[in-house]
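Hey team,

Filing this mostly as a record. A colleague (T.K.) asked me to run one chain through the structure pipeline before their review meeting, and I want the input and output archived in the tracker in case anyone asks later how it was produced. No errors, nothing strange. Just documentation.

Input sequence:
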Amino acid sequence: MPLLPPSSGLPEPNRKDCRYDIALPGALVRANMTANSLAAQTVANAPPSLAPPSFNDGASLFLFNLFLMTAAMFLGGMLVFRQLSRIWAQRRFDHPLDPVSLYRLITVMAGIGLTLRCGAEAMYLWGWAPNDPTTVARVLMAKRWIDPFAVIAGMTWMTIVMLGEPGIECQLRKAPLPVDMWSRWPTLARALGIVILSFVAAASAVILR
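Output structure:
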């Protein structure tokens, strides 16, 4: 007769319960994967810190990055909104391949790339919470999805520059006129206000942590 393995003294698992555990709903599986991800485990096992580990717990460097990323996100969004508004207002007069249309499209792509890249980084810095590793892991995953789209916007911007460069340069050389840069100071004043508010918000966040 074949020898049976010695009993461990533990109750045998219920087959019905095993089938239920295997057939967990997809939403619960994804939630468990997020909570048990490598990023969440890394944050949970790391010592508590004011900033992510790459800052080496430097408050001033963390403040500088938080301030610049937040300000750049809002400024890029303002630029995109402004150029899209001008494209819509002039849609009946400007041909899509006119130099001015290409210039606006280049500006839109550059603004989108800046907004997405700096916005993703600002979201990560603002969402840093060592006592909530699950949220940090979700923010990191969102950042990893947003960053490629920011790069795609930047590559599209460079492609339009290269393709439209001959025509744009030819048009600019036909009637070189001085550029009136001083008329845009009110717009820069609003941008400066956003920069100041971003610095105040970032400084308050770092000081109150």
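Quick notes for T.K.: The first helix runs from residue 15 to 22. The CA atoms of residues 17 and 23 lie 10 Å apart.
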